[in-house]
Amino acid sequence: MKGDREKIVYLPCIYRNTSTRKADYLATVDVDPESSSYCQVVHRLPMPNVNDELHHSGWNACSSCFGDASKKRNRLILPALISSRIYVVDVGTEPRKPRLHKTVEPVDLYWKCGLANPHTTHCLGSGQIIISCMGDPSGGGKGGFVLLDGETFDVISNWEQPGEAAPFGYDFWYQPRHNVMISSEWGAPKALANGFDPAHVAEGHYGTSLHVWDWTTHKRVQTLDLGEEGAIPLEIRFLHDPNATEGFVGCALKGSVFRFYRAPTGKWAAEKVIGVPSKKVEGWMLPDMPALITDILISLDDRFLYFSNWLHGDIRQYDISDTRNPRLVGQVFLGGSITNDGPVRVLEDPENQPQPQPRFIQGKRVYGGPQMLQLSLDGQRLYVTTSLYSGWDKQFYPEMVREGSVMMQIDVDTSKGGLTPNEKFLVDFGNEPGGPALAHELRYPGGDCTSDIWL
């Protein structure tokens, strides 16, 4: 929390499902207000292939390796959600000019692990790297984990024991002090690859569960079915305090946040603690528009929870001093599907909020809605990008695919709570040299509150 202020961030930029047939790339963005290149992309590292769908990234070493002088946070692990490649990027030699270090080909995941569609990366205290996967090589759902060697980055094996994979995969977080790892579910890759079909939910192609794993034996020991209110549980976050036995997961489809916790019996349980109600609308694909919670994070002091409602268009800040009763203390609208100049009319809103005005920053209209979030170490700056996943971007926000996504910064009141857009900060990925791009998840070179785990 007392680390240096962020000066650059890395984020993948995607061309799949856009009009540009070029490789995705890793952008380096200058976020130092004292720099002459502030708010600019200062470097682009293209991948060697097209249609990868770069998505989330992680590190070869993080706070779980603290105290081990042989470990350095100098490699960014960059899985490709659709192609199933894993790129290892050297960010240590020249942090402002990353270079490709190694490519792990899909065949290694397929043949050694029977897995595909890698998503979340975490480093381990052992020096190895663990990556969650969403599917099998044929596109069916399969929630398993790939182990990489932390030096060679070769695929070692599955992390989970044979036969223990979950029906679906997505995100995960581990806490060795409590001998536990908990993973979440999105859906079957072949169902969601090119867009969202609501019928697929009823057909069982999307998940509703959290899976509890024994950290020592690598066995799945419990499944928490969150039910209809917990459909499509995505980002999962333990509290950062390694002694804590609780955390939160954002469930996209019904706009729910569940608190998960270890009960006195030793078993794990979950309860819904936040609900963002759907709005009755006309002029949209369905009569009810969900908030679609797509990203959540917890401040490093475990005081505030933030999440983005990608369809409704707002970011919310909750005081979680009482984890069972989160209290809304900040909200800001940044685009979304219900702006008052658009085709959608809100007929009934249980929260009685007016339709928001369109958002302009630096003269640029924000298309799409707030999606990926990253918080500064001191908690005072919240960075946000607008692209979710190119197949869904194309379906729900075609204007964003045409015009490019943006990166914004929100000023945070860390005393009483409150969110205010920084009107001087905008990174416009609509003006990229290769054409408008879809920028996704953000990473700081020094670590952040969504990639680092403390032991």
From TrEMBL:
Question: Where is this chain primarily localised?
Answer: nucleus
- Coiled-coil region list: none
What reaction is this protein's catalytic activity?
methanethiol + O2 + H2O = hydrogen sulfide + formaldehyde + H2O2 + H(+)
- InterPro entries, from UniProt? Se-bd (IPR008826), WD40/YVTN_repeat-like_dom_sf (IPR015943)
Membrane topology of the entry: Peripheral membrane protein
Query: Keyword set for this entry?
Result: Acetylation, Cytoplasm, Membrane, Nucleus, Oxidoreductase, Protein transport, Selenium, Transport
Q: Quick one: which pathway?
A: Organosulfur degradation
MF terms from GO for this chain are: methanethiol oxidase activity; selenium binding
User: What Pfam family does this protein match (any one)?
Assistant: SBP56
What biological-process GO terms show up in the record? protein transport
The record's GO CC annotations read: cytosol; membrane; nucleus
Tell me yes or no: is Heme among this UniProt entry's keywords.
no
Q: Does the keyword Cytoplasm apply?
A: yes
EC code(s) of this entry: 1.8.3.4
The places in or outside the cell where this protein is found are: Nucleus; Cytoplasm, Cytosol; Membrane
Question: What is the documented function of this protein?
Answer: Catalyzes the oxidation of methanethiol, an organosulfur compound known to be produced in substantial amounts by gut bacteria. Selenium-binding protein which may be involved in the sensing of reactive xenobiotics in the cytoplasm. May be involved in intra-Golgi protein transport.
- Family affiliation: Belongs to the selenium-binding protein family.
Q: Record's PANTHER family?
A: METHANETHIOL OXIDASE (PTHR23300:SF0)
Write the protein's name.
Methanethiol oxidase
What organism, scientifically named, is this protein from?
Answer: Hippocampus comes (Tiger tail seahorse)
